[in-house]
Amino acid sequence: MLESERGYNTTIAAPQIALNRTMIFAERNFVAAPLSIGLRIGGAAEFGGLRASPNFARSKGLVELAKA
């Protein structure tokens, strides 16, 4: 059976910081990457099945990690 991986991220349109490069926060388990439209926070993935609904709480959790 083929299983797909679903990744979670979010983009903050008006972050209060500016990054020049992607930064990996290994101790907090997330990545922050500068984009022309804002700051991308990512780092969560799951094998939830093709029919499973997205778990948007995972994206919100990444933002909370980045705020800390």
Kindly state the mean pLDDT as a whole number? Answer: 90
Q: Gyration radius, to the nearest Å?
A: 13 Å
How does the overall form come out from the CA principal axes?
elongated
Number of strands: 4
Strand order of the largest sheet: 1-4-3-2
Q: Could you give a short account of the major beta sheet?
A: 4 strands, antiparallel
Q: What are the low-pLDDT stretches, counting only 5+ consecutive residues below 50?
A: none
The structural class is alpha+beta
What is the end-to-end distance?
39 Å
Count of helical segments?
1
**Proportion of residues in β-strands:** 35-45%
Give the SSE order as H and E letters. Answer: EEEEH
Helix content: 10-25%
Report on this structure.
- This protein has 68 residues and is of the alpha+beta class.
- Helix content is 16%, strand content 37%.
- The protein contains one helix and four strands.
- The chain has one helix at 57-67, and strands spanning 6-12, 23-25, 30-35, 38-46.
- Strands 1-4-3-2 form a four-stranded antiparallel sheet, covered by helices on one side.
Fold topology:
Elements: E1 6-12, E2 23-25, E3 30-35, E4 38-46, H1 57-67
Antiparallel strand pairs: 1-4, 2-3, 3-4
State the main characteristics.
single chain, 68 residues, alpha+beta, 16% helix
Brief synopsis:
The protein is of the alpha+beta class. Helix content is 16%, strand content 37%.
